[in-house]
Write a structure and sequence with these properties.
CATH topology of the largest domain: D-amino Acid Aminotransferase, Chain A, domain 1
Shape: globular
Order of helices and strands: EHEEHEHEHHEEEHEEEEHEEHHEEE
Strand content: 25-35%
CATH class of the largest domain: Alpha Beta
Radius of gyration: 20 Å
CATH architecture of the largest domain: 2-Layer Sandwich
Strand order of the largest sheet: 14-13-10-11-12-15
Largest sheet: 6 strands, antiparallel
CATH superfamily of the largest domain: ATP-grasp fold, B domain
Helix content: 25-40%
Number of domains: 3
């Protein structure tokens, strides 16, 4: 008999906009097995060419996040397939999910995502920076582009990036003043940020449903590819762990997985650059170090106690990611059969 949560709903899990997150799908499957649950992990995406679909127990295609039918379609699927927990890993649909989470919960589906106000802060780099300053978090200098700053006054080099960008897309390092105007013109709603030197880091964070810090695991981004860490190492940093606790306390309606990023300079000073209200691409490193967010999300849904301020994870755990292919045969325009 399939075991269910305390509310009687099967603990089927949905990884939404799954994309390349094959390892995350696998980790949820492992967590279900470890907790003695025979439930399924589903994956969905708008493209049949999303590798993570074929790592799940079952998968389906959905309208793109910009389609008005995106959320209604998912509500129907979650009801039909008795989905108890939804995790989205794509920035494009986070606000839609956050705004609709009460509708999902009315039918017994928990969305592991923060309040819409918190998601809006994370999705707009102008708002993120303003929130950092308002809440006394360390952040690099930024310059407003409306009105345009005096180019002669900017301390080059600077970083230019789209305010609602994701995965490092559109981020430019501008070293020459004559290039800056062209880059600003080519970037949608650009942000100009002080160039940071030092070591780049991410802190993977899990917040409980009642807005308390469950765990925070920093890792150094030793190598980045396509906006995601490809080589990383966990490390202890008391200051970052304190910032994680304060961020969870102050960010409106904070719950579920999130991460924040920034730089450590040679003196040890911290500068925060962004918040992502979702699992980061480097989460498998935190998991391997002992911070089993996937277990704790499932346990919380089952009504079981989960840690608070868990610090039992290991430092100096190193991750080296590599490519692996999924091969299939296209049997219909929107269907691929794995070989």
């Amino acid at each position: 008999m399939r075991r269910t949560g305390s509310d009687g709903i099967p603990m089927n899990v949905l990884i939404s906009a799954a994309g390349r997150r094959v390892r995350l799908v696998q980790l949820f499957r492992e967590s279900l097995a470890r907790l003695g649950l025979s439930s399924k992990v589903y994956a969905c995406d708008s493209s049949p060419l999303s590798a993570a679909l074929y790592a799940a127990d079952d998968h389906f295609l959905v309208p793109p996040a910009c389609d008005p039918q995106h959320i209604p379609f998912l509500l129907g699927v979650c009801a039909d397939r008795k989905i108890g927990l939804v995790v989205s890993v794509n920035d494009a649909e986070l606000i839609q999910y956050a705004e609709a989470r009460e509708r999902f919960e009315e039918q017994g589906t928990y969305i592991a995502i923060a309040h819409p106000d918190a998601v809006r802060v994370s999705r707009d780099k102008h708002k993120t920076h303003a929130w950092f300053l308002e809440n006394d978090f360390p952040a690099p200098r930024r310059w407003c582009t409306r009105p345009a700053p005096s180019l002669a006054d900017l301390p080059l080099p600077v970083i230019v990036k789209p305010a609602r960008g994701s995965a490092g897309i559109g981020v430019k390092l501008v070293r020459k003043r004559e290039e800056l105007e062209e880059v600003l013109h080519a970037t949608e709603d650009p942000v100009i940020e002080e160039w940071q030197t030092g070591r780049e880091f991410t802190v993977n964070v899990l917040a409980s449903r009642d807005g308390q810090l469950v765990c925070a695991v920093p890792h150094l981004r030793l190598e980045v590819r396509g906006g995601e860490v490809s080589k990383g190492r966990t490390f202890r940093h008391e200051g970052l762990e304190k910032l994680a606790r304060r961020l969870v306390e102050r960010l409106s309606g904070c719950r579920g997985p999130l991460n924040f990023q920034g730089f450590l300079d040679a003196t040890g000073d911290v500068r925060l650059t962004e918040i992502n209200a979702r699992f980061g691409g480097g989460y498998p490193l935190a998991h391997a170090a002992g911070a089993t967010f996937t277990d704790w999300l499932l346990m919380e849904q089952l009504g079981r106690p989960i840690p608070r301020g868990f610090a039992g994870w290991q430092s100096d755990v190193v991750m080296m990611r590599y490519d692996r292919e999924i091969v299939g045969r296209q049997v219909a325009p929107d269907r691929i059969q794995p070989l």
